[in-house]
Design goal:
Helix content is 32%, strand content 31%. With 199 residues, the chain is of the alpha/beta class. The chain has a single domain, classed as fumarase (Alpha-Beta Barrel). The radius of gyration is 17 Å and the shape is globular. The chain starts with 5 loop residues before the first strand and ends with a helix.
């Protein structure tokens, strides 16, 4: 069986370099990534609307839908688990967040819906999934916690974490810059197959 080629991207990710990615491609990430869950999405959107500057630069950035399990060890943070949370939780916020932030890539779990797929097509963004149930594996790729923001206000899982990662993946492109949505395509195919058996 032929080995699937993995593409490696350095952050920040120029949108020109991801426009040829297609659903099903497998990639890995080196560099800086930022965690954003529900509350961090909401807070960031608030900042953008009020024309306040975020504590991080998200231009061409990679974000991770993640609430890490982390503990302060001495002066440094140690991350024990960094698996992504269910990304559909962010569906109602993602289009607006993408529009304001100019990110290039989202990493999450499960699929995302039509609103996100349209935003990915319009703004040249890809959505990738990380294997579910592999939080410890994800944490092993975090080489350093560079910073954390909004910790006291939002708590450890919801705070904005800044991770330095190496070889983070494997990530499967699930929504590409053309707006193809692998999760929705699989759902349609599954329904068609089930229908063919119930006749």
């Amino acid at each position: 069986m032929a080995k699937v080629e993995e593409k490696i991207f350095e952050t920040p990710v120029d949108k020109k370099t991801i426009k040829n990615l297609e659903v099903g491609d497998i990639i890995r990430i080196n560099g800086t990534i930022f965690t954003f869950r529900d509350k961090a999405h909401q807070k960031a959107i608030e900042f953008y609307k009020r024309k306040k500057k975020l504590p991080v630069d998200l231009n061409n950035a990679v974000i991770l839908h993640c609430g890490p399990i982390a503990k302060k060890v001495g002066k440094n943070w140690k991350v024990f688990s960094a698996g992504p949370t269910t990304s559909m939780r962010m569906e109602r916020l993602e289009e607006e967040f993408i529009r304001y932030s100019n990110i290039s890539m989202i990493i999450g779990k499960g699929g995302m819906g039509e609103s996100t797929a349209k935003a990915c097509r319009r703004f040249g963004v890809v959505y990738c999934t990380f294997p579910g149930g592999a939080g410890a594996l994800a944490a092993s790729y975090i080489k350093k916690v560079k910073d954390v923001f909004w910790l006291e206000e939002l708590s450890i899982p919801e705070a904005l974490w800044v991770f330095e990662v190496e070889n983070f993946g494997p990530l499967i492109v699930t929504i590409d810059t053309k707006g193809r949505n692998l999760t929705e395509e699989i759902k349609i195919e599954a329904k068609e197959r089930i229908s063919s058996y119930i006749k």
